[in-house]
Amino acid sequence: MRSKKIMALLLTTAAIMGMTLTGCGNKINEDATFATLDDTTITMGVANFCAKYQQAMYDSFYMSYFGEDMWSKDVYGNGSTMTEDVKKDVADNLEEMYLLKAHMGDYDISLSDDDEAKITKAAEDFIAGNSKEAIKQIGAEDIENVKEMLRLNTIQSKMHDRIIKDADTKVTDEEAAQRTFSYVVINTSGYTDSDSNYVEYTEDDIAGLKETAASIAAAEDFDTAVTDAGYTVSTASYGSADDEDSTMDKSVLEAADQLSAGQVSGVIETDSALYVLRLDSEFDEEATAKKKESMISQKQEDYYNDILDGWKEEVKWTLNEKEWAKVNFDDHFKQPETDNTEAADESIADTESVNTTEAE
């Protein structure tokens, strides 16, 4: 669940976050209204901290790949900048967390004194493990901003675990049934030469690849033939030829459906590759068990999201666009060069203690 990942990141980086200032710093009015959920007011102090914390994580993990101007780039190709994408995610997540907080009583969920003590300790460690400049820029000078985010995440974790208990998780073996096949894939588009140039195959090259695929299909020992030809045997499991979860070309799955256990297919040609298959199991118990777990988890998440969507329709959520627009990611966070592994390990322990609290 996303909230648990956010919680873990916050606390495990408590002692390894530093900052380099490249702008004019944090000028957010923390008492201003970020949004209202019916009669509940969420402050800019909390929203800014959540946003800047997310920024710190992205700066740490992605800036080396996308460059220091990544926040102004359309990284995902969806027509918006990374700043806009992250701020939307933060706003959406805050709406959901405050909805969950508002419905705690419906599920007899509460924060215990022990929860509050762990939250306070984690917040104090976070502040102590960062530079004054970073704490100011991230909006954590008021420890209540940090504690509120930790409370919200703890509530979200408890509520999630409680809500999914009501989901219908019945999945039969027939619904989850998986067939498993081994296969070799031979690319027919092209290759990268020794000078790292991409070269398309000629018609003669493709003809030779088809001969290789045909020899594998006709061989008595599929595994040996694939290896001797310089390729690798892979395996895949699927439910049916119409399996939407499979990444395989439909023609490959249709061919697999025609095989009995132990049979090898002929050469299957797609737009960019040649395949040869061997069906290993018509009912793979292990793969079926894993698929069943996945289907149950999906049913739980669908139920959880349906509950949230229903609550959203019943309330009025108003975002203060003017104040929210003032949050930017111009100042960048970075990890310091010093080794703080021991302190980080202590933060991990704190994370687990807050995250693993069971619903009461």
CATH topology of the largest domain: Triger factor/SurA peptide-binding fold
Overall outline: elongated
CATH class of the largest domain: Mainly Alpha
**Which segments are poorly predicted (pLDDT under 50) over 5 or more consecutive residues?**
1-24, 340-360
The total of helices stands at: 13
SSE run = HEEEHHHHHHEEEHHEHEEHEHEH
Helix-strand category: alpha+beta
Give the beta-strand count.
Answer: 11
Instruction: Domain count, please report it.
Output: 2
CATH architecture grouping of the largest domain: Orthogonal Bundle
The first-to-last residue Cα distance is: 19 Å
Strand content: 5-15%
User: Which value, in Å, is the CA radius of gyration?
Assistant: 27 Å
Helix fraction, binned, reads 40-55%
Sketch the major β-sheet. 4 strands, antiparallel
Record the strand order, biggest sheet.
Answer: 7-4-9-8
Oligomer: single chain
Overall average pLDDT: 87
Signal peptide: 1-17
InterPro entries: PPIase_dom_sf, PPIase_PpiC, Trigger_fact/SurA_dom_sf
Region (Disordered): 330-360
Biased composition (Acidic residues): 339-349
What's this entry about, in short?
Keywords: Isomerase, Rotamase, Signal. This protein has 360 residues and is of the alpha+beta class. Helices cover 51% and strands 14% of the residues.
Description of the molecule:
It is elongated, with a radius of gyration of 27 Å. By secondary structure, the protein is α+β, with helices and mostly antiparallel strands. It is built from 13 helices and eleven strands. It starts with a helix and ends in a 5-residue tail after the last helix. It folds into two domains: 226 residues, Triger factor/SurA peptide-binding fold; 104 residues, Roll (Chitinase A, domain 3), CATH 3.10.50. Helix 1 packs antiparallel against helix 6. The strands form four sheets. It has a four-stranded antiparallel sheet, sandwiched between helices. 31% of the residues are buried. This is Peptidyl-prolyl cis-trans isomerase. InterPro entries: PPIase_dom_sf (IPR046357), PPIase_PpiC (IPR000297), Trigger_fact/SurA_dom_sf (IPR027304). It holds the Pfam family Rotamase_2. One of its GO terms (molecular function) is peptidyl-prolyl cis-trans isomerase activity. Keywords: Isomerase, Rotamase, Signal.
